[in-house]
């Protein structure tokens, strides 16, 4: 885990940009500068960055280059349960304003017009500062959202699949043993997000879906664009927002990235003894693999090219543990491939490769 020093900067867009980057890093679980640099180098970014350059982007008083800022958003956003475009849009304007000297930032000037009649003369200009009107939208949304959540009762997450949850935008909160641990936002369907949390926690070791509860607040889709969940997230109060719980699939290039010790997947790794809930019978290998992927409570990613040879009438009986399924695949239809169980997901490719932090390896 890496915690970066925050430089002393005067109030302004540069300071706001730096604080936004530190906030993104915190929500991503505080990966080290070396881990971030490795992810940038392995990703599809128009630059390579040393770990020192990454550290300076957070800790140095000078403005980091835009390609580096964009790459940081690309690497950290998935770890923070966000998307790179969303994070880039949040910091682009701050970075552009930071490049512009304060004195050159445009100030609207309204020219004085000539009086339309001789008895109408312009009012004398006052040297006193004119009071301005403003609305603290962030505070208003934060306070109303907190109040709306507090008024909601919690429901057991184990009953979420049968519960009446709206298929609309909203903010939801998860509780583990009664403690609030995660606040998330759904831009389209809060029902889908809560069901995803139920499925994810159903296939983990060290934690039970029976010990988790949730509550939610539906909201207008336009308000979801304000990232309202960030307004009520605190590192001490919502630890799962900081440890990668909401992360999506980071892609093939991230499979060799080492997780920090506090990452959710290391605290609660996937359960290879979890058993599928129904029979799987398919006529072809691609359909068979898709059916297995859909039946598992954690991600199963595999290569696009199937092994040579025709395989038909594939079947897995209900209540078969995932470990036995992967072992049978490696000995049968995926012979010659390697199936690797990582702390948070499983991958299958035609390779022989050692990965860091591996739970199990299945191959012929």
Walkthrough of the structure:
By secondary structure, the chain is an alpha+beta fold. The protein has 3 domains: 13-100, no CATH class; 138-241, GIY-YIG endonuclease (3-Layer(aba) Sandwich); 269-363, Phage tail protein beta-alpha-beta fold, CATH 3.55.50. Helices cover 33% and strands 13% of the residues. The protein is built from 11 helices and 10 strands. The strands form 3 sheets. The protein has a 4-stranded antiparallel β-sheet with strand order 1-4-2-3. A 4-stranded mixed β-sheet has the order 6-9-8-10, covered by helices on one side. Strand 2 (170-176) and strand 3 form a beta hairpin. Helix 1 packs antiparallel against helix 5 (84-99), helix 2 (33-42) crosses helix 3 and helix 4 packs antiparallel against helix 5. The chain is globular.
How would you describe this structure in keywords?
3 domains; alpha+beta; Phage tail protein beta-alpha-beta fold; four-stranded mixed β-sheet; GIY-YIG endonuclease; 10 strands
Q: Supply the number of structural domains.
A: 3
Overall pLDDT = 83
The helix/strand series, from N terminus to C terminus, equals HHHHHHEEEHEHHEHEEHEEE
* CATH arch. level architecture of the largest domain: 3-Layer(aba) Sandwich
CATH class group of the largest domain:
Alpha Beta
Q: What Rg, in angstroms, do the CA atoms define?
A: 26 Å
């Amino acid at each position: 885990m890496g915690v970066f020093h925050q430089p002393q900067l005067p109030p302004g867009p540069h300071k706001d940009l730096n604080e936004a980057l530190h906030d993104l890093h915190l929500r991503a679980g505080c990966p080290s500068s070396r881990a971030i640099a490795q992810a940038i180098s392995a990703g599809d970014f128009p630059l390579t960055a040393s770990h020192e350059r990454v550290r300076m982007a957070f800790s140095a008083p000078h403005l980091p280059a835009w390609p580096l800022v964009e790459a940081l958003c690309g690497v950290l956003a998935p770890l923070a349960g966000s998307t790179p475009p969303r994070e880039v849009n949040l910091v682009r304007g701050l970075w552009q304003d930071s490049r512009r000297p304060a004195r050159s930032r445009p100030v609207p000037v309204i020219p004085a017009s000539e009086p339309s009649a001789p008895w109408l003369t312009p009012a004398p200009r006052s040297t006193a500062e004119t009071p301005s009107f403003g609305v603290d939208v962030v505070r208003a949304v934060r306070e109303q959202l907190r109040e709306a959540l507090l008024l909601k009762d919690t429901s057991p997450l184990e009953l979420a699949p049968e519960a009446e949850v709206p298929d609309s935008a909203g903010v939801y909160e998860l509780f583990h043993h009664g403690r609030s641990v995660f606040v998330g936002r759904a831009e389209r369907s809060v029902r889908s997000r809560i069901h995803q949390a139920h499925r994810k926690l159903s296939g983990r070791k060290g934690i039970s879906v029976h010990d988790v509860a949730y509550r939610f607040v539906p909201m207008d889709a336009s308000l979801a664009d304000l990232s309202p969940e960030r307004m009520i997230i605190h590192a001490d109060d919502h630890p799962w927002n900081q440890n990668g719980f909401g992360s999506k699939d980071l892609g093939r290039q991230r499979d060799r990235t080492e997780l920090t010790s506090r990452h959710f997947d290391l605290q609660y790794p996937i359960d290879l003894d979890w058993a599928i809930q129904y029979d799987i019978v398919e006529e072809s290998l691609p359909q068979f693999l898709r059916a297995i992927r859909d039946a598992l409570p954690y991600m199963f990613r595999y290569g696009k090219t199937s092994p040579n040879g025709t395989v038909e009438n594939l079947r897995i009986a209900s209540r078969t543990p995932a470990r036995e399924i992967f072992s049978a695949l490696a000995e049968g239809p995926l012979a010659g491939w390697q199936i690797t169980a990582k702390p948070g997901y499983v991958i299958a490719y035609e390779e022989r490769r050692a990965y860091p932090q591996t739970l199990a390896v299945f191959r012929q």
